[in-house]
Design goal:
The chain is of the alpha+beta class and 370 residues long. The protein has 3 domains: 8-62 and 76-96, 2-Layer Sandwich (Phosphorylase Kinase, domain 1); 100-223, Transferase(Phosphotransferase), domain 1 (Orthogonal Bundle), CATH 1.10.510; 233-364, 2-Layer Sandwich (GMP Synthetase, Chain A, domain 3), CATH 3.30.300.30. It is built from 12 helices and 13 strands. The protein has helices at 8-17, 59-75, 103-106, 112-127, 165-185, 192-199, 203-223, 233-248, 281-291, 317-324, 338-349, 361-364; strands at residues 18-26, 31-39, 42-50, 85-88, 92-96, 100-102, 130-131, 141-144, 149-151, 158-159, 255-263, 267-275, 300-304. The strands form 4 sheets. The chain has a 5-stranded antiparallel β-sheet, sandwiched between helices. The two termini are 36 Å apart.
């Protein structure tokens, strides 16, 4: 990790107390990675957000977002609804790692208990005067290994000293976004009052959709070239569908799935898992993709005997994404049986992205022995 653009004090502390791990995300607003932090009570799993690689033209909004997260995490300390603030400097902060996976990866269908926990967490946050303001994104809701709900990414959070009208509107929208996720995963658990909330946007939200959101998209997607779908950005949104169609043209390919992963050199990389029998097919596919003069080929192409699939036959991209990101310890809670573990054994052992490996991966996923 380069620390040359951090303050001398921040760089010295991180050099002494931070151990690099897996890159989780890098965009024009910050770099986020998972590693270990040496705190007063010993070394703990943690997440580092730093601004030392932010372009000069986005530094001002990046510092604003950083300041909001720093303030909100400090105020939320002790609430047990999100990551603990372990340390914060001028352009870097370290927060505790939550042992869980994002909502869009965990997919807690029918889990009414999870959404009860989520509502309780939101209530505690609002009682402390904090509104998250970015809960429409499923990746900002975590499903903990303990089954509880946790919130993350407080860059847009707002802290209020009193329960003003603006606070009540923001808190209402936080709740409404939570209920939209509940409607997606556990609609049978919605109460009549919750259905009323879902049916009624606040006036501010309606105005935002008609005006502000359009400006926001124009700035972030145009000026900042920033698109955030499950952390994949423009390449996952625009390039992956084209690449999938090109790969499927090969008669030896049965199916393919492409996921995104954070890459230290390019920011966002693409990883293609290709279901086929010929192990030597990778070179052939790379040549075909290069000759097509289409989008940049995936950084990694892995031939697999079969893609993991859900009950409806769709590829389980949530598991494949964790494999691509080397977050193997987070796969274990998603395994339903020894058959699942045996199925993934070859996929995990033959994975291609070995640049970002860390010491949590070896002992946490209990793969069947050969």
């Amino acid at each position: 990790m380069s620390l040359m653009h951090l303050s001398r004090d921040d760089a010295a502390l991180l050099k002494a107390r931070w151990t690099d791990g897996v890159l989780l995300k890098r965009d024009v607003f910050s770099t986020v990675e998972r590693g270990r932090f040496q705190g007063d009570g010993g070394s703990v799993d943690a997440v580092l957000r730093r601004l030392d690689e932010v372009p000069w033209w986005s530094l001002m909004p990046a510092r604003h977002l950083f300041g909001r997260e720093k303030k909100a995490l400090g105020l939320a300390r002790g609430l047990d609804v999100g990551p603990k603030l372990l340390w914060a400097g001028d352009r870097a902060l370290v927060r505790g790692f939550i042992d869980g996976v994002a909502l869009h990866l965990a997919k807690p269908y029918g889990d009414a208990g999870y959404f009860r926990s989520a509502k309780q967490a939101l209530h505690r946050l609002h009682r402390a005067g904090i509104c998250h303001n970015d809960l429409a994104k499923e990746q900002n809701w975590l499903v903990g290994r303990d089954g509880r709900a946790y919130l993350t990414d407080f860059q847009l959070a707002a802290c209020f000293r009193r329960r003003s009208r603006l606070f009540r509107i923001a808190a209402y929208e936080d709740l409404r976004h939570l209920l939209k996720h509940k409607r997606s995963y556990a609609p049978q658990a919605l109460t009549p009052s919750e259905r009323k909330i879902l049916a009624r946007k606040s006036a501010v939200a309606s105005l935002w959709l008609m005006t502000g959101k359009k400006v926001y998209r124009a700035v972030t997607r145009g000026l900042f070239n920033f698109t955030d779908r499950e952390g994949g950005g423009r390449r996952l949104v625009n390039d992956a569908p084209v690449l999938i169609e090109l790969i499927r043209k090969n008669p030896a390919v049965r199916d393919t799935a492409i996921v995104a992963f954070a890459d230290r050199r390019t920011g966002v990389g693409l990883y293609a898992f290709v279901e086929a029998d010929q192990a030597a097919l990778e070179a052939q596919l790379r040549n075909a993709l290069a000759a097509a003069n289409g989008p940049k080929p995936p950084e990694h192409i892995q031939i697999v005997h079969a893609l993991p699939r859900d009950a409806n036959g769709k590829p389980r991209t949530e598991i494949l994404q964790l494999v691509a990101m080397n977050q193997l310890d987070l796969i274990e809670p998603m395994m339903r049986s020894e058959t699942d573990r045996a199925f993934l054994k070859d996929i995990i052992e033959q994975r291609k992205n070995l640049r970002d490996r860390f010491n949590f991966e070896a002992g946490d996923l209990q793969l069947p022995s050969s």
